[in-house]
Amino acid sequence: MEISSKENTHFFSNNTILPVDRSSFKSESSSSKENQSCCGGIKIFLGALSFVYFAKALSGSYLKSTITQIERRFDIPSSLVGVIDGSFEIGNLLIIILVSYFGAKLHRPRIIGAGCLIMSAGTFLIAMPQFFMGRYRYERFPSTINSTVSISPCLQDKSQTPLSALEKSQAKINAGCEKEAGSSMWIYVLLGNLLRGIGETPIQPLGITYIDDYAVEENAALYIGCVQTVAIIGPIFGFLLGSLCAKLYVDIGFVDLDSVTISPKDVQWVGAWWLGYLIAGVISVLAGIPFWFLPKHLPKPESRKDSSTSSEQSKFIVEENKDQHTSYLQQVKFAEMAKDFLPSLKNLFGNPVYILYLCASIIQFNSLIGMVTYKPKYIEQQYGQTSSKTNFVIGLINIPAVAFGIFSGGLIMKKFRIGVLGAAKLSLGSSFFGYLLLLSLFAMGCENSDVAGLTVSYHGTKAMADYEQALFSECNSGCSCSKNDWDPICGENGITYVSACLAGCQASNGSGKNTVFFNCSCVGTFESSQSSSAVVGPCQKGNECPKMFLYFLVISVITSYTLSVGGTPGYILLLRCIKPHLKSFALGIYTLAIRVLAGIPAPVYFGVAIDTTCLKWGSKRCGGRGACRLYDSSALRYVYLGLTLVLGTVSIFFSVAVLWVLRKRSSPQDETLSANGERGACGTKSRKDHFVNSDQLIQSTYWPEKETRL
């Protein structure tokens, strides 16, 4: 950025710019080009904004990686987890219009700094329940816990269990109920995520427009591309952090790990989900510090002073002071800014290309947000993978594919000098082929695990529709079992049983993870009536499942790349179809619509749909339905992928409509400038050349939390 050293010094000392005669400014600027520092204000802001993008992307992606952990820790269904995830968007909804419209006229760096502090406070709040709700309790038969009391799993005669042990166990359960009945600690997670949404709001609309306003025009696209590229690193670290924390037991540091009788492969396993939020909160605090020392305004580059793409902030100030040549207006009254709000809103919604593209984006983000939110759960349940491995795969494979796709889209736009019409075609083609590839995933699923009484009968045949009643059979009729328990064991016949009691086991040996059950009347092989043994934990999925998981990863990576290629062209289409002084406001409205109509509802109704595929629900200590323990793999695949594809197909139809409107506007009879002479028609020949030659075509797309849309 080319400004004189004298003006640069004056700027940093007063945080303002005194008006300078244009002719003298030009001569002074041209004579001091060699004296400009490479560490000017815009580059400092660029570095600070890149770090903030990294911080917000890390915390956002880490939340996605802990969805299943939160569900199990608080014993809640997927639909409620969807509400928690959507609370981030609600936080954005509360202030996005005010921030995007009024924030451009205020001290933008300090508003971003304040947002970082709020974001960190919300991140810390999410982790707080871990320190107040006591130790995590999971369902385990007493004999699998390190105990000297020998208890028969089948409990044919309740007198086998010492009375004192039963009374003590019941007393602990009752005490736990009294403590937990009046507490819903997941609310703190919801409120924390709400604060995260509020704090994240000003970062994108104010940060990007600040760079676009004060950077040299030929460098603006490069700077914004750098910010978005650095932001991709955030989700990679976020999911890798989620992978690491998922390996650690939730109460690490508070309990003796040798006493833990479940492993990360168990569906009841909960990792140290809270630890990552503490780390992310600290990073957010550090990211916000530099913005408190950055100025409100930067000297505008000489090449941008007469540009038609001047910012709405500069245009506003110039219009208010065009007859005044003494000083800049130091404070702007809100009433004066608000008077143009409704006309600006009417102008945006009167643009058919903007409206159609907005509708296409809303529906597509419903598809992508729902898919990405429950992608870890889908991989865990469909392919039998641990949370740690799932997060590792997403962070190390899928995220780089998204980053490469975004970069490729911008590179294609720049290399082939593609205009607005070409951008619409590229965006449409990307979506079409991406969802076409997604269709192939229907054939890459695993069959249901053989679970006696749920997916197969105790005789090895398919179970009846009434799953709960099918849990009881002649082989366990003499046992006093509960259908609400979930303490799976794997019989030597390869079938999983909901509990040792329901397997009809009469004896056990060992303790903890090494417990072996004997004389299990239901585990006898189908050819023989002899009783057999079983071990703690569910049986592994079929032999074909690891191969299917590999195919799924390959197609998933290609799909992620293909869908991401269309992001940058779509973003360019959005920016080039609105009047230049409405950029920040249009992005704010766009983001608001995505938050309200996609970010909030998509996780909820995806969660409700996924809950309908549950075969076995857990039970809370005080009664009531807890988190799902086992899903119907086939039904889950059809619901998860089917809902994603239906929404994606609808969005493609809107994209076709966008392309049709652009073709119509680019016809010879419509190739005229609008009466007011401003850019906004998005299809005139005179402006088309401007779009083709624009240096901002390399500019990366902004999707709300796009870094996790895989």
Folded structure, characterized:
- The protein is mainly alpha-helical and 710 residues long.
- It folds into three domains: 38-139 and 184-300, Up-down Bundle (Growth Hormone, Chain: A); 341-446 and 551-667, Growth Hormone, Chain: A; 448-540, no CATH class.
- It has 25 helices and seven strands.
- It has helices at residues 5-14, 22-31, 41-65, 67-73, 78-102, 108-127, 163-180, 186-200, 203-214, 217-247, 273-288, 312-321, 334-338, 341-349, 352-373, 375-383, 387-415, 420-439, 467-470, 545-565, 567-576, 583-599, 601-611, 633-665, 685-692; strands at residues 489-491, 496-497, 505-509, 516-520, 532-536, 614-619, 625-631.
- Helix 6 (108-127) packs antiparallel against helix 11, helix 15 packs across helix 22 (583-599) and helix 18 runs antiparallel to helix 20.
- The longest helix is centred in the last third of the chain and has 33 residues, at 633-665.
- It is elongated.
- What sort of overall outline do the alpha carbons produce when their principal axes are compared? elongated
CATH secondary-structure class of the largest domain: Mainly Alpha
| Low-confidence residue ranges | 1-39, 144-149, 156-173, 307-331, 668-681, 683-710
Examine the secondary-structure arrangement and name the CATH architecture of the largest domain. Answer: Up-down Bundle
What structural class results from the helix and strand content?
mainly alpha
- For this structure, the CATH topology of the largest domain is Growth Hormone, Chain: A
Overall structural domain count:
3
The N- to C-terminal Cα distance equals 36 Å
How much of the sequence lies in strands comes to under 5%
CATH superfamily of the largest domain: MFS general substrate transporter like domains
Please give the order of strands in the largest beta sheet. 2-1-5-4-3
Could you give a short account of the major beta sheet? 5 strands, antiparallel
Average pLDDT, rounded to a whole number, is 76
